[in-house]
Amino acid sequence: MPKAFSDQERDTIRAQMREKGKKLFEKHGLKKTSVDELTEAVGISKGAFYLFFESKEELFLEILEQFEKEIQTSILDFAVKPKANARKNVSEMLGGLLLTWDAYPLLKNFSKSDFDYLVRKVPAERAMQHVSNDEAFTNELIKKIKREGITVKASPRIVSNLIKGLFFMGLHRDDLGEDAYQETMNVMIDLVAGYIVGE
Prior knowledge:
Blueprint: H1 7-28, H2 35-42, H3 46-52, H4 56-76, H5 86-102, H6 105-108, H7 112-121, H8 124-147, H9 156-170, H10 173-176, H11 178-197
């Protein structure tokens, strides 16, 4: 049976698992990274791993959400350009969200098959919590846009679904090819921004 850890040890180990896990997931991908590799990297037993996470997929989701939080914070801190029109400003916000996503190798290489695998493996309530977090971000983004004096013509539900649509398109990067993906994504971001502000 794994030994009990103090609160300080638990915090340290959890942080190490996120850090080492990120590197291993970047190198091998979600499916090919094993719990044995994760525990060896951190220096804990396999039994101890399950004191922190029910599965490697839950660890991956926690790392994913940590990145998402950083990206979302940077988007909510985005300074609009006073001389740019509403559509352009919203387009740059959405573009910043997706460009920042691409800056993280773990996220950029996250494919449709990885997404499907992750959804199958994590408990339904954990997946719903993630969806709820995404919706909370969308509501904050809409408030941010409105504070900047930009009128939002689309409902929060539609805005949330449009952002999800851009994310899902990103999962098909390999299917489209890098050049076509970038070009198509730029067009889609502009169209989504136009719809949000009613242009």
